[in-house]
Amino acid sequence: MPTYSVNAINVGSFNLGESDKIITLFSSERGLIRAVAKGARKPGAKIAGRAELLAVNKLLLAQGRSLDIITQAETIESFKAIRNDLTRLAYAFYYAELTVHLGQGLNQESQIYYEMLMAALRQLCDLNKEPVYLCLTFQLSLLHLLGLKPELDSCVLCRKRLVEYDLGVFHHDLGGAICNLCFSTKTPQGKGQKYKMRLAEAEEAYGYQDNIEPKGQMSSYFTHLTPLVWKKLILASYSPEQKPVYPNNGSSEIIEKTLIAARHLLETYIEHRAGKKMKSLGLISI
Ligand SMILES: [Zn+2]
């Protein structure tokens, strides 16, 4: 049986037979791989810890007919700090779930994404860093790598440069923001005041979580864009190397609510593009 070696992060798994597991791995060398970890569910087995979600291993795999088989595993990193904090763990599971569902599209850039995911998980281990903000920058970096970076500077319909008093909605089909004028006059959903009133009602009822899907228009999906959320997204969209410092104007509660709203907006956009609801988000209580 031919063998190959990779450095890989465990991003998903399910049980196979009585004692084995099938692991979904994202490797630096080959992108997404599914492989069997034999005996991973046997109590006390050496492979058990190495088969856990988020464990990073140097692996030797034997090529099988349908699935490859892990023959050797050596731990590189296990992100212990994340495992001691439920919120951070939930975010890490979200990153892993995104990798399972979108990783196929990243196979050509597997090394870049592997390093990005490793860096994102290391940052989550830093208890001084705000996990919501880290998640926001991760979502934007992932979208950038997938070629789906949201357009936030200009209106995706009229190309006019956006300013905070002229924001309409973030349109998930078009992948960017629409100015207020285009939203109320050019989009089929706009239809003037009536829809805006619905937005206002929803905003009042749900706070920032105002993902609205108008009846009968399932394929068009958008989120109301407030100036605070828009600014947060713009600031977070700088390249991951240039760690942006976001201004702490306003109370910490407002800043946190704004960050969460921005994260929700990107969650919705990613799920819309992936055609899949991410389950791990249910673990995130905020
Ligand atoms: Zn416009």
Molecular structure report:
By secondary structure, the chain is α+β, with helices and mostly antiparallel strands. The protein has a domain at 3-77: Nucleic acid-binding proteins (OB fold (Dihydrolipoamide Acetyltransferase, E2P)), CATH 2.40.50. It has helices spanning 46-50, 80-83, 86-102, 110-125, 131-145, 180-185, 193-206, 227-236, 252-274; strands at residues 3-16, 20-27, 31-37, 56-62, 68-77, 167-171, 176-179, 211-212, 222-224. The strands form two sheets. A five-stranded mixed barrel has the order 1-2-3-5-4. The chain is elongated and about 60 Å long. The chain binds zinc ion. Zinc ion is lined by residues 155, 157-158, 160, 178-179, 181-182.
Q: Which strand order do you get reading across the main beta sheet? A: 1-2-3-5-4
Q: What would you say the CATH architecture of the domain at 3-77 is?
A: Beta Barrel
The largest sheet, given as strand count, sense and whether it forms a barrel, is: 5 strands, mixed, barrel
Helix content: 25-40%
Strand content: 15-25%
Structural class, judged by helices and strands? alpha+beta
Descriptive labels:
single chain, 286 residues, alpha+beta, OB fold (Dihydrolipoamide Acetyltransferase, E2P), five-stranded mixed barrel, four-stranded antiparallel beta sheet, 9 helices, 9 strands, elongated, binds zinc ion
